[in-house]
Input
Amino acid sequence: MSTFGTLFRVTTYGESHCASVGAIIDGCPPGLPLAAQDVQVQLSRRRPGQSNLTTPRDEKDLVHLQSGIEHGVTLGTPIGLLVRNEDQRPKDYSETDLYPRPSHADWTYLEKYGVKASSGGGRSSARETIGRVAAGAIAEKYLKLAYGIEIVAFVSSVGKIDMPSAVSPPSQVPDDDDDTVEDALSPEFVELLKTVTREQVDAQPTRCPHAETSERMIKRILRAKEANDSIGGTVTCVIRGAPAGLGEPVFDKLEATLAHAMLSIPATKAFEIGSGFRGTRVPGSRHNDAFVRREGGGGLATRTNWSGGVQGGISNGEDIYFRVGFKSPATITQPQETAQYDGTPGTLAARGRHDPCVVPRAVPIVEAMAALVIMDQVLIQNARRAAVSLLPPITTLPPTMVKPTAPAAKAEGEEKH
Amino acid sequence: MSTFGTLFRVTTYGESHCASVGAIIDGCPPGLPLAAQDVQVQLSRRRPGQSNLTTPRDEKDLVHLQSGIEHGVTLGTPIGLLVRNEDQRPKDYSETDLYPRPSHADWTYLEKYGVKASSGGGRSSARETIGRVAAGAIAEKYLKLAYGIEIVAFVSSVGKIDMPSAVSPPSQVPDDDDDTVEDALSPEFVELLKTVTREQVDAQPTRCPHAETSERMIKRILRAKEANDSIGGTVTCVIRGAPAGLGEPVFDKLEATLAHAMLSIPATKAFEIGSGFRGTRVPGSRHNDAFVRREGGGGLATRTNWSGGVQGGISNGEDIYFRVGFKSPATITQPQETAQYDGTPGTLAARGRHDPCVVPRAVPIVEAMAALVIMDQVLIQNARRAAVSLLPPITTLPPTMVKPTAPAAKAEGEEKH
Amino acid sequence: MSTFGTLFRVTTYGESHCASVGAIIDGCPPGLPLAAQDVQVQLSRRRPGQSNLTTPRDEKDLVHLQSGIEHGVTLGTPIGLLVRNEDQRPKDYSETDLYPRPSHADWTYLEKYGVKASSGGGRSSARETIGRVAAGAIAEKYLKLAYGIEIVAFVSSVGKIDMPSAVSPPSQVPDDDDDTVEDALSPEFVELLKTVTREQVDAQPTRCPHAETSERMIKRILRAKEANDSIGGTVTCVIRGAPAGLGEPVFDKLEATLAHAMLSIPATKAFEIGSGFRGTRVPGSRHNDAFVRREGGGGLATRTNWSGGVQGGISNGEDIYFRVGFKSPATITQPQETAQYDGTPGTLAARGRHDPCVVPRAVPIVEAMAALVIMDQVLIQNARRAAVSLLPPITTLPPTMVKPTAPAAKAEGEEKH
Amino acid sequence: MSTFGTLFRVTTYGESHCASVGAIIDGCPPGLPLAAQDVQVQLSRRRPGQSNLTTPRDEKDLVHLQSGIEHGVTLGTPIGLLVRNEDQRPKDYSETDLYPRPSHADWTYLEKYGVKASSGGGRSSARETIGRVAAGAIAEKYLKLAYGIEIVAFVSSVGKIDMPSAVSPPSQVPDDDDDTVEDALSPEFVELLKTVTREQVDAQPTRCPHAETSERMIKRILRAKEANDSIGGTVTCVIRGAPAGLGEPVFDKLEATLAHAMLSIPATKAFEIGSGFRGTRVPGSRHNDAFVRREGGGGLATRTNWSGGVQGGISNGEDIYFRVGFKSPATITQPQETAQYDGTPGTLAARGRHDPCVVPRAVPIVEAMAALVIMDQVLIQNARRAAVSLLPPITTLPPTMVKPTAPAAKAEGEEKH
Output
């Protein structure tokens, strides 16, 4: 359905060519300073027309906040918002009337609903993500203010061009049956995750913060554009500063809800957290993240972070990082041998205006979905912690069963009358 | 939380050392023939002690159905079931009392809840998956009977040992900036997906249906076992015969719910559907799945299936296949330099009985979670189709907006009184 | 939260003085003919200023449909809609700044959220119900078209003025300890439920379809108005033509979800279905609804209908009827001895423009919430029936366990590929 | 479905004659001292055979806790529990094979599911409530310990026999069109709500704490029993000590979720909170609850409490009280003229063992459902409050928009790493 989240909940509406797209954000904490600009920043990073790498449609995508805010402060009631579709009249798409676009959603929508929007992607259009990005920006504002959480996504590959540090060089991989192994990720990449900023990311038109790689990616994308073709890529995202304890065993583990969130973004096909698929090749003795005393504070840290900040489905206080794979855009403008809706074989030559590569614009969408997941999990875990804080201390359990640095923390909760 | 699904819903309980583990399955269609044996088959494939590759604990894992069934037929009411924990007394784990096991859930559970189970994995133990496997077996029974759906999972890699057909040989990958590309998967692998059976899978102790690879995997796992180490791997799963139209835009796309389901399985770190991460490297012109007329039936099929049976988040009637990455088990019996709960550095030498590699036993768990996702989506989509079938035919829309092979199918739904 | 429903789901936003109020309706069956006018009709019945019995604010309440519809037909995607708040500037309410209005939501909102809207009812305002009424109108359109379901609500009492037929005359009630009983409702009232129409209801400014009673109610309301006071009342609602089988045991029984829906309407305090509270006084032998063969069709009907169309939480095909109690509006313009937010005692004299009696305007709101409940339950039950229709006939159960008039009904559901 | 609650969630299974009935309670705060006896107390108050007023089946109803607890303390993981059905063999019910019992769930279950349990009530049996009562007892334990909340239900009427104080004498009700009014409830009754205890309630076999009325009720019930008939009644429940701020606008208002909970109990037909239906007859000027400074603490109290502790759907810190109507039990042992499943008219003479009046046994069920609602709302509101506590103080709003007695209360929430 079109709703995501349990306590912090976004519901979206809108197709590519209707009056507007929008969202209702329910469960936002009251008392949060919030202005349209907080939302607009991320919407503008998402919108088309930002460089010659993306689709030339110049949609303004101005957000109109409708409710839930007064004098720049949230009331705790639902925040309604919308962005008008300025280009409601379909024209460029008419050639596709007879043909479902290959690997696009035309045919499956028709199978599912029996009807479909007259043109463009309808509900499967990337315009649907506007509501998510807006909601995510609100969640981010809270997380930053309350926890200092930072969420930064960036392009880590385009086609076969990887950031040099993102993958261990294949030449270092020995014989398959050999136990000699390399780590799943390079030390440089893990280091980058600790410091990368949105400014660094936006400094490159590809949103790959490694300048040299970005140059190669630009060429790759332009080559696809010239060939009326498209190319995929990956986005890596890091969440810094999230508290330990997020994620709800057993079905709503943190990586499970992150994966759900990410694979709900159009054109995504793959998700991995921490060392991911490459980590499956590393023996446990080398892959395990040993514990060390956390510097300058209670609790434990880990020496390495192959787990991606999550163990047993629960955040452990380390950086949470993951990678999302976006397929090459299905809409290409070179002719394709395919079939019409009725099965008649033929050649489809789409026109329209399309992105040869979506990953640069996907960056704020990935950040938004990450923020929605963390926000919801924070609220759920806070409900538990507040409940626990009202109980008397546990005295009957063996010490090894009880958190050693129990929160001297005082009871929050409700005043009693 | 411990509930998964909307209309077909499983809720589980149980830790590794409590009285029993179990589940309530709500929303099972009434009138389904169902016996304990239907469930037991998959539980027995999941349980430890099946070969010398897995943990030697010999738990019988007999299922006890409690409700929701009479005379071997489901009533439509919740099915309660449980499996007793025969080995409730913890003993082997006491050494770990002072140490949270690295990359295990000990520390994060304590952070989250403030208390933890006295021993073993508690709720994070793989025993928790018993409820899922049981629920999945029930869903599978329905899907097989009603739709002829087949779900088969198998081990596609252990450590660095891949099924030869699973990955394009790296030598064929040309220069990174070159457009010359290979497909994401080999033709042999795609062919295998169309035919592989559980019998073929179970014929190998590794559950990798390729005999020669399986032999290499066995050696790899035994080498890990001898080294008191562990090794990860991947499980690939194919769902054959699922109807088109499954998956709920926009947040509950089929791949999103599959990813959620898979990454809720303990030790998973990665998910990809269809061509997955490798597909991001293939240009759209080569990656798109062109349409052809479906043989012997209405509608369309696709010539290739890089999409993994899902387009726009909705199944298209082709095989649905995906791959899940399982990390190397965290519990190893060689000494690890790490820290105690209170931060004191030291050496942990776990004993206990543990799997050096979990992927063979993970196969039925992956199948179960896949069945739960498909079952729920089938019910939700059927609700829509039944609703549509009661409406008069659409006459006011342009033909290109309406499904051409509209279901002559007659209205199901409700008798009217 | 601000979302209602499982498969047919409405989410609303908006306070009394923000830019707009609106809703997203998710899960509407595709292919439903739908125009703004379908929604506007019920919005106009809800809006203020319809007679001198209600508040004189003249808000146009024009609905703007945003998405989910093309060429007058629903697409199956979310329907976004909004109604602008024309009177956004608060002025009349300033006196209340220091005083929480007694029995209003001012104080509890502040307790809950820590902040509150600057004026008026904010989110607790009756304007919030606009989204519900719009959503309900869409549900109604479907239910009418697909099932012929009719939903009619009307005012059954204002203050102590009951429709004469609604309550057994108290004089007929014998001694408390006597078994001699009267029925819970009069035969005339039960008869009225079978035939009453919206036209009959709207013919009276009070929306009480009994003209003579309506006259008395008008006088009562005007007397309250002149006294700067207010008066409560009840709304009775009947749903005709709903199929048997709606309602989900055990927690989502049909009466439970109806009660939930009704008591979510502002100012409601009471709900009863069928014979309700009065039925608790009638012995089972007289209160039971005996079965008879259903005329002109399969299945059974009941001779009486004290159950209100629901048995065991499931609809039985008879008329579903229930009654909702609305308290006297809390906002009155006579002075009230009360306390300020800080506890200082004083006198509050509200001004503003307020309804002396809300029940006439509550009629379309009750109808809307009833439609939302039935619509959602219809979809859920259809999912089950469609699932069952794909199973082979049951042969192993004793005949008394199987529905005798089993739907020869043919399999709906999915085509198989 | 069979799940209730959002953060504190109970899922139940079981029919009257299967192996066991049980529940999974998910979301219980960790660290709560909990023993089987805490649950057993309420189960024993619910079970049949407690006096000659109820059914003579002597079921032990011993609870078996399965998981989620160690050393008498909850772990925060799901609590599985079950109660065996000792009397699984149906025998007394065979006469009903041909007849659906009037006003019972036999026919509607068959309509809904197409199959039904072979005998007894199946899932519609009151045995299903065992899981709820157990879950409620756990919630109550927490609420008592953390907030000092007390929940007490009692029988307020049987048939036409009301507690004398429960209803204003009808003789005091003047002419219908007269404004002269009495209050909705007597002062004595409102006083009773402040002090009534479970001990006082259990001192009477009817669970009506007014001894004289109880005597009359006993006679009434025995007269029904002798006549092979049945009689209904009402249960009133008060929740003392709940904090202000519970209840989620707009659809999950506190009274809405309470009504949902109560009308999900078998045999219920009516719900009213505070002054309820009678309050609709009292003008606003008399019905409004004026504010006064709360004694010995911050915030406001109300002079009267016609609202039943809820305003705008949110608790205000006053006693929450409501009344639930239970119909006369449908199963009676005198002959009834009705029809068989196939429509054939005839006479049904049920045998079996049945309660002539269910309200005494319903008391702990009402308490349990009340506890489940309050528990869930407490957790949800705590999530919000904890979130707010981490935000900086609001400085930009007019003082009248901000809670004056802002919680100096310090931030709970998460430690930051």
Observations:
- Residues 3-386 of chain D form a domain with the Chorismate synthase, AroC fold fold (CATH 3.60.150.10).
- The first strand of chain D starts at residue 3 and ends at 4.
- Residues 168-174, 406-417 of chain D have pLDDT under 50 and may be disordered.
- Chain D has one domain: 3-386.
